[in-house]
Write a sequence for this structure.
């Protein structure tokens, strides 16, 4: 047995990452709950629109984490400390440069986003207030992507756990304090996020410094200001950027179409999307283990170890997905009631709950294979599959079934997730059979 890729090895990374990851949708649920109890759905709708903007903006740049993880894990597996140090430095520089561009372009970004999402005038006004505060979290948010990705690549799950726990717990506490106790509305939610991201960054720096001390490099191979040295990082991240933007397009499209169906459907879809995000973040914890272990195995040229890592992380992912299906079937209505006391939202959300009950077992394949492909730095394949699923499955399904309204929107989303998983599964088998990832033998 290869103990480096055993069930225990999987859970040394997956367990803390699951705990930390599920705090993200819990934060979304708290945002939804504090806004959902203000008595008017426009507050919840405004936070939904604002959160969508930053999901597209920041999560569209999540390639900073994924690209850093894959390159770092492979360097770690090869025992190349200079490579892992260079990956960290290059990614931090890239994150800060992108954050500065975002801040400079903030008026254009806000206007463009609101034009595309087209919320009502009241919701748009509140969304601008949210945006004007949260935009200043860009440097901390993007650097946190890099630090978390680098620590995962170094097989260190304790650091990301602490970073994400502190970030999201601070955010939750400040959400409640600012909105419930101080009487703020969307501005309180945005300010809480800004402060929490800064706390997370400070925590991440502490862990990265400790990891660097444990893995000293020679320094002779590190050239942070030589553009040619960024080629691999650019190649990986460019494909991941296109891939992630296609994913964010789908989420933004769901929000935009919901907005066109009225503030109630917009708010309901925002509430229900928390179910999907909770599953994705929980299963991402196992996918993070796949990233780290697959990357390490490829760096070490260990084909059997890579296959073992994929098999065991897939087994655990399927088990967790089945558990989520059962939990949502039993407790879905209770969760809806917990997140809002507006009876119209509760009743409407229940109409669409079945889509979220079946989603975990359909979505699980794409979540797990994302981790496998990130660890293998196969970003081009990830991009092709995501763009293809968007253009040839999601959009045709929506336009073919738009007459059934919001049910058509959830059908399109469900088939999109299924296409992603199927595409990645068959492409991975092709890479394995051809010996492209690691030579057979």
């Amino acid at each position: 047995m290869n103990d480096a890729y055993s069930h225990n090895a999987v859970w040394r990374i997956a367990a803390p990452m699951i705990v930390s990851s599920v705090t993200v949708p819990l934060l979304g649920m708290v945002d939804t709950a504090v806004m959902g109890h203000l008595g008017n759905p426009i507050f919840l709708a405004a936070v939904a629109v604002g959160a969508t903007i930053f999901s597209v903006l920041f999560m569209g740049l999540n390639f900073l984490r994924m690209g850093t993880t894959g390159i770092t894990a492979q360097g770690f597996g090869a025992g190349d400390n200079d490579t892992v140090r260079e990956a960290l430095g290059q990614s931090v520089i890239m994150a800060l440069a992108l954050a500065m561009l975002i801040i400079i372009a903030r008026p254009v970004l806000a206007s463009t986003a609101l034009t595309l999402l087209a919320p009502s005038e009241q919701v748009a006004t509140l969304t601008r207030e949210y945006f004007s505060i949260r935009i200043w979290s860009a440097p901390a948010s993007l650097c946190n992507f890099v630090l978390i990705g680098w620590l995962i690549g170094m097989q260190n799950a304790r650091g990301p756990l602490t970073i994400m726990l502190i970030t999201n717990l601070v955010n939750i506490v400040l959400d409640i304090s600012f909105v419930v106790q101080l009487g703020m509305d969307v501005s309180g939610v945005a300010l809480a996020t800004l402060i929490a991201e800064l706390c997370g960054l400070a925590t991440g720096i502490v862990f990265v410094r400790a990891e660097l001390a444990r893995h000293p490099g020679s320094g002779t191979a590190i050239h942070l200001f030589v553009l040619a040295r960024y080629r691999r990082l650019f190649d990986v991240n460019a494909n991941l950027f296109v891939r992630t933007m296609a994913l964010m397009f789908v989420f933004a499209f769901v929000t935009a179409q919901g907005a066109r169906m009225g503030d109630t459907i917009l708010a309901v879809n925002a509430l229900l999307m928390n179910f999907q995000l909770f599953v994705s973040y929980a299963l991402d914890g196992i996918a993070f283990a796949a990233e780290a272990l697959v990357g390490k195995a490829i760096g070490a040229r260990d084909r059997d170890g890579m296959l073992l890592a994929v098999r065991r992380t897939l087994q655990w992912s399927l088990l967790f997905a089945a558990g989520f299906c059962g939990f949502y079937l039993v407790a879905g209505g209770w969760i809806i009631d917990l997140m809002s006391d507006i009876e119209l939202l509760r009743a409407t959300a229940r109409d669409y709950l079945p889509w979220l009950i079946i989603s975990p077992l359909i979505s699980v394949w794409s979540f797990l294979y994302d981790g496998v492909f990130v660890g293998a730095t196969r970003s081009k394949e990830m991009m092709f599959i995501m763009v293809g699923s968007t253009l040839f499955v999601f959009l045709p399904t929506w336009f073919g079934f738009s007459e059934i309204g919001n049910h058509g929107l959830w059908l399109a989303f469900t088939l999109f997730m299924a296409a992603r998983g199927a595409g990645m599964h068959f492409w991975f088998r092709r890479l394995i059979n051809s010996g492209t990832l690691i030579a057979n033998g």
Remarks:
- The mean pLDDT is 88.
- The chain has one domain: 3-434.
- Residues 3-434 form one domain.
- The CA atoms of residues 69 and 153 lie 4 Å apart.
